[in-house]
């Protein structure tokens, strides 16, 4: 007989109506069915003879079935930690929407403290080998960022390894900002909130974090086993369903993405489960304080500059035809603009930043305290007193790849069509259909979201409309944020905030296409939105296809598969590619208007040049049998990894950083020497002008420039029927 999930059996006794509400949650079957891909039990039958759902459609079919039950069930959850005043000390405070792009007072204080710490600890002396008698002035300290890409568990484990390598090589203490997209956000958020070695205080170490994921990734967080482990743990049920209860109190609809968010986060934040033996086995715990993102400020000692300033990211899908005409009048239909500002038929993505102090967007020029995000706002003032949003729900925004628009799903299917005559015929047929439909209608179809993004209260609701900002967004009561990998799989955007002064950005990239040369195009496509042109110092040729050989596996007899490269072949193939410098030149600088120059989408334009060091996750000679881009267990959609597989990616990613160390040091030295030379020459840093301009909030200062298209990129839809997701 199918075992009842512990989520359901560890509750106190329930009434008949409560029992009915929870019954839908029992439909989750045992096994490891992935949230995108079929798991070990996929295709098997349960005792009633019903085939298990598999794959993406299967997951959401199951979640859709259980969601109505869960939505009713959360009304009966008796949770206490959301009411704990020590976890939400600002609960009874009124919050305000700040309508400028000035940095928060907390961030400005952090910057001074972090620079002082770098100078005091002689961090640059140690990393660069500077002579002992060299005095590093605070103005000499380069502002360095470290970002991690999306890519599921592969990105999470790879970025954790990169953080470990930076810490052990002595570069992490020189990093000012760190940010993630999608999968990298798991490790980044856990670094600052998960008390693996209590108390959680700076300096923080990422190595215990890798050990933690090595222990827990053998179970899928969406499987019955995963849910049961959370439910059996101390604080587990509250962590799983408490945030949904709090959101329901807020008057916001609880949707599939919210349930996905709490299922994954409560499992990933599970501590101590499985330790011990027999009846004394530890059922684990979920620490309530670990699910409050604002706590990262304290844990990271940010007021003293002890750790880099951490930033999670998400994006809003701006579809001009879909914006509200007024606070009581939503969009009319998919093809009619509600006003002149809605006439642009092109959709785009607006970036949001979620740091421990504020949540907001430099494109919309609005920021609210992190502890107040999720509350209803009207005319720039919060109208509710609620506990701080659970980090589980914030992680749902940052990692909500399942809520991607249809174009992302179609692009995935398109890229995986067979490379033969049948695949070519299917491509021609699809292009014929899209040509008949027409580009304007296809623009609307591409931007439909099959799985609805999470509903959040819009902090901009009812706020005064400012010129060029928002496209009427202030009329919408709801805010929908999704995984920022939908816009760009690298978090470059948040480092280029108009009041930040970043010299050098390290970008760890665990995207699946890092061996296809698409990354440089992706960097420049994004750079075009910020008025930057990035040029690689070394332009590497495209990698030749790996030779194919006949498979020796009896199951695949006669099938051609890529040859297994030797360590020497891998070393030669990827030589010089583990760390690549790109020089970014700002093309939209207007002297005196730094920080307030925009394109027609009100995206702030860079006012200074910036250097990137691209760190792709490539195969490495130290581990020749593992290719991060092609190993089945390394798929972006797989969340179940064995300890050996975790060790494999760690071994590869760590070796990659060490192989790239000479280039990494070269970039840091250049950034330091450039800063030092400017100080010695008495050159004034424009950042002070940018910060004054952004703090002033004077729309008369705003300057607009034409959008710049990235070089060497074919304009979208240049041919009738060709959509942006139709990659070669």
TrEMBL record:
<feature type="region of interest" description="Disordered">
    <location>
        <begin position="1"/>
        <end position="28"/>
    </location>
</feature>
<keyword id="KW-0442">Lipid degradation</keyword>
<keyword id="KW-0808">Transferase</keyword>
<dbReference type="GO" id="GO:0004623">
    <property type="term" value="F:phospholipase A2 activity"/>
</dbReference>
<comment type="similarity">
    <text>Belongs to the lysophospholipase family.</text>
</comment>
<dbReference type="GO" id="GO:0005829">
    <property type="term" value="C:cytosol"/>
</dbReference>
<feature type="compositionally biased region" description="Polar residues">
    <location>
        <begin position="9"/>
        <end position="20"/>
    </location>
</feature>
<dbReference type="GO" id="GO:0046475">
    <property type="term" value="P:glycerophospholipid catabolic process"/>
</dbReference>
<dbReference type="GO" id="GO:0016740">
    <property type="term" value="F:transferase activity"/>
</dbReference>
<protein>
    <recommendedName>
        <fullName>Lysophospholipase</fullName>
        <ecNumber>3.1.1.5</ecNumber>
    </recommendedName>
</protein>
<dbReference type="InterPro" id="IPR016035">
    <property type="entry name" value="Acyl_Trfase/lysoPLipase"/>
</dbReference>
<dbReference type="Pfam" id="PF01735">
    <property type="entry name" value="PLA2_B"/>
</dbReference>
<keyword id="KW-0443">Lipid metabolism</keyword>
<feature type="domain" description="PLA2c">
    <location>
        <begin position="89"/>
        <end position="700"/>
    </location>
</feature>
<dbReference type="GO" id="GO:0004622">
    <property type="term" value="F:phosphatidylcholine lysophospholipase activity"/>
</dbReference>
<dbReference type="InterPro" id="IPR002642">
    <property type="entry name" value="LysoPLipase_cat_dom"/>
</dbReference>
<keyword id="KW-0378">Hydrolase</keyword>
